[in-house]
Amino acid sequence: MNSIAKLKWRCRRGTKELDYLLEGYLDKYFNLAKSNEQSLFIELLTYQDDLLILYLLGNKVPDLVELAALVKKIRTNPDL
């Protein structure tokens, strides 16, 4: 299992916008999420920055429905 500190480190991508979105989700929603959503977030952190930018800041939608729902949650959440 990944510790929150390790996940926080993995959220730091060097792009302020990505850092803000990923760390925001981690801080506010990760611990409240079901295990499958937590696993999807951890998987999302394995993606290359260029793909994360397309998913979280652009118009690309992941093919996996569950991952697309998580990306939408991160992108459109007013609390982040």
Can you describe what's shown?
The protein is an all-alpha fold. The protein has a single domain (about 5-75), classed as Flavinator of succinate dehydrogenase (DNA polymerase, domain 1, Orthogonal Bundle), CATH 1.10.150.250. Helix content is about 65%, strand content about 0%. The chain has five helices and no strands. The longest helix is centred in the first third of the chain and has 13 residues, at about 15-30. It is globular and about 30 Å long. It starts with a helix and ends with a helix. The model has no long low-confidence stretch (mean pLDDT about 95).
- CATH superfamily, called what? Flavinator of succinate dehydrogenase
Number of strands: 0
Largest sheet: none
Number of H/I helices: 5
Low-confidence stretches: none
Instruction: Kindly name the structural category.
Output: mainly alpha
Q: What is the number of domains?
A: 1
Report mean pLDDT, rounded to a whole number. 93
The succession of helices and strands, N to C, reads HHHHH
| Morphology call | globular
